[in-house]
Amino acid sequence: MGVSSIVPVLRFDALELSFAHRRGNIAALRGVTLSLRRGEILALVGESGCGKSVLLKAVLCLNPGRAQVTGGGLYYYPQADTAPLDLLKLNALQMRQLRGRQIAAVFQDSELALHPSISVGEQIVSQLRRCGQTDKHKATERMLQLLTMLELPDPVAVAQRLPSQLSGGQRQRCALAIALAGEPQVLLADEITSALDPRARCRMLQLLLQLKTRQHLSVLLVTHDLAAAAAVADRIGVMYGGRLVEIGNAEEILNMPRHPYTQVLIAAQPAAAKRGQPLPMVAGNAPLLCDPPQGDLFALRDPQARVIDLVQRAPFFALSATHAAATWHLHNMLCGQNYPLADTIPGGPLD
Questions:
Q1: Hey, which of 16, 60, 62, 265 would disulfide with 71, CB 3.0 to 4.6 Å?
Q2: How many other C-beta atoms lie within 10 A of the C-beta of residue 197?
Q3: Exposure on the CB side of residue 13, measured as CA atoms within 13 A
Q4: Taking the CB of residue 106, how many other CB atoms lie within 10 A of it?
Q5: Sheet holding 218-222, edge to edge
């Protein structure tokens, strides 16, 4: 397995981030190495508190003020043939210039993203002008183009409405229009389907796929919904306890999961439940990250865990050119196969 020739658009290099707390620092990210490739949708899945949203918000410095990066790096590549920007060294003005124009974000609660007393059309026009479209007439035309592209019915009427006059799915698409106003290269999407009804959820996922193709957009999608990830993602990364524990293409993660946490996470999906039986669930509780041990935190919930799981962090083992998992269960003395180590490859276990 060699180093990929594909230059990423975002790269997390052993990123560590903690939150200050009266009981001690909370280690929310614990050495996450990961790359978002150009033109792909990369989904991050895992339980609440696993660090996936913290990782996404770190890109645009959107975590609360008590968050502090304590190690590692975070880089953005504006062009494939240029040096990356070190996002951790940008000042407040530089970060504001980056937000919306090159990297944009959409979040779960569209009501918080939209001003309640300003029409959605006016809000989109305002963002377009903020991103450089000085002509108000052209900004209005572009606003209507965005609403049409996002398949909102009667864009002129929608543009005149307040957020409260729209459905949840319509509000989310208007928030997406604001994110796309600056024609960014990267879209950070944090749980954007979880508050939608099934029909609106399906339509939003279809729009993400269309934007990836038509706008050449790279998408980092954070979701707890494995079905949503499977529907749109090129690759899926599984996080647990502030760490990436497995990554691969969607088919590999869903059909051949190798980390014990990935296996129980997939088994606990509602689709796996049998009629008349209780919904499946992951046993035990999510770990406390105030003073985490060095080993695999999921070992505390894994009946097959061994002593080494509790005391030593497992490296990534390469299962294929696109699939790797960090678990001692893949060591040749335990599984009988000689999977090569993948954690020494620059830029991440699979890059």
A1: 16
A2: 11
A3: 16
A4: 24
A5: 103-106, 186-190, 218-222, 41-45, 235-240, 243-249, 324-326, 316-318
